[in-house]
Every structure is written in structure tokens, then in C-alpha cells.
Amino acid sequence: MNLFELFFIFFKLGAFTFGGGYAMVPLINQELVATGLLTQTEALDMIAISQMTPGPLGINAATFAGMRASGIPGAIAATLGAVLPSFIIAVIVARFFFKFKESAAVRALLSGMRPVVLALIAASGLSVALETFAPGGAYLNSWLWENLDIPALCVGAVCAALVFGAKKIPPVAIILASGVFGAIFLR
Predict the structure, then answer these.
(1) Do the beta carbons of residue 1 and residue 35 sit within 8 Å?
(2) What is the mean pLDDT of the chain?
(3) Are 10 and 66 in contact (CB under 8 A)?
(4) pLDDT value of residue 7
(5) How far is 59 from 56, CA to CA, in rounded Å?
(6) What residues contact 112, with CB distance under 8 A and at least 6 apart?
(7) What letter would DSSP give residue 145?
(8) CA distance linking residue 113 with residue 87, whole number of Å
(9) What is d(CA 46, CA 12) in angstroms, rounded to the nearest whole number?
(10) DSSP state of 148
């Protein structure tokens, strides 16, 4: 894949994704897996690594995918492609938002976009959960329960309980502990 194609894929993703990095995940999967740039497992790994590294998920994912596709020049092209639309839109919106923020039309526009963003984030979460707990797309090809990864499901359940439990544990500590657990017990 040449650098222009890589730039354009991420420019398109950056231009048409609203709601942050998680809203971008289904589109990243669609574009990168469909073009053969990444396998579904690599896309899932990319999401996990992008989430654990400092910075916005979408930009980290672009850098990761670009590096995978074409090394450092690919990482630069993909990252610029992902960032440029947001930069352009932010400059335009900043110019006019404060002037029109009380407008009924602007409030209605934002109210209409919120459910879509929520649905994209939920679809992303479901996609990642299914690939994590039933690897290989088992949920599409056969009955989900046949390929259910019980250890991964247990780790996920324990982590969710720790995050949402009465004594909330910082997510960073949970991520690190899960990584150590996986390295030791889930090889």
C-alpha cells in the first residue's frame, strides 16, 4: 500500500468519525481488515495497544497501522491523515461555535448526533468483546459457545468487577495486572 492510499484511508476515517477513538474502531476494522492491511486479530491487538499507550486512541491506531503497513513513513502518513480532518473541523467549529452555541438548530444537531455516537461506541465494544471471548469470528461462522475462551471471559469479568466495584481500582493497575496474569497463565 502506498503512502497516499494510507493517508487517504485515515483522512477518510478522521473526517467521518465523530465521538472519539472508540467510535472510530468499527470503521478502522472495516477499512483495515477489508483492505487486508490487518487481520481481525491484529486489529484487536492494535486497539488494545492504542488504548494502553498515551494519547488519543484513533491517532495511536493510525500510527500503529501505518507502521505495520509501511514503516515510519507509513506511520507519519497515517497519523497525518487521521489528524488533519479533526484539525480542520476544530478550527472551523471553534470559529463559529461560541457565536451559535445557543442556537436551537445547533442544540438539535448535537442532540441528534449523541445517539449515533453511543451506538458506534457500543458496536465497537461488542465487536472487541466477541473477538476477545470467542476468537476467530466464531460468532459469525458458528455458534458462539463453541469457541468461548473461558479464561479470557473470567479475566474480563474480574476486571469489570474491579472497575465498577465498590472499591474502584485505577484502570492502569488493572491493565498491568491483567497483562502480567496473561503472560504467566494464558500463554
Answers:
(1) yes
(2) 82
(3) yes
(4) 94
(5) 6
(6) none
(7) G
(8) 20
(9) 19
(10) -
What would you report as the CA-atom Rg of the chain, rounded to the nearest whole angstrom? 19
| CA distance linking residue 80 with residue 10, whole number of Å | 8
In angstroms, the CA 130 to CA 137 distance is 8
Q: What is the pLDDT of residues 41-64, one digit of tens each?
A: 888 888 888 877 888 888 888 898
Residue 143, classed as helix, strand or coil, is coil
CA separation for the pair 18, 109 (Å, rounded):
13
Look up residue 140 and give its amino acid: L
| % of the chain surpassing 90 pLDDT | 11
Identify the pLDDT of residue 186: 67
* pTM score, whole prediction: 0.58
Amino acid at 14: G
111-156 confidence digits (pLDDT tens): 898 898 888 888 878 877 877 787 765 445 555 667 778 878 888 8
Residues 7-24 have a mean pLDDT of: 79
Given a contact cutoff of 8 angstroms between Cβ atoms, the answer to whether 30 and 120 are in contact is: no
Instruction: Look at residue 87 and give its three-state secondary structure.
Output: helix
Helix (H, G, I), strand (E, B) or coil at 135: coil
Domains of the chain, residue spans = 3-134, 149-187
| Sequence-distant (≥ 6) Cβ neighbours of residue 43 within 8 angstroms | 28, 29, 32, 33
What is d(CA 125, CA 131) in angstroms, rounded to the nearest whole number? 10
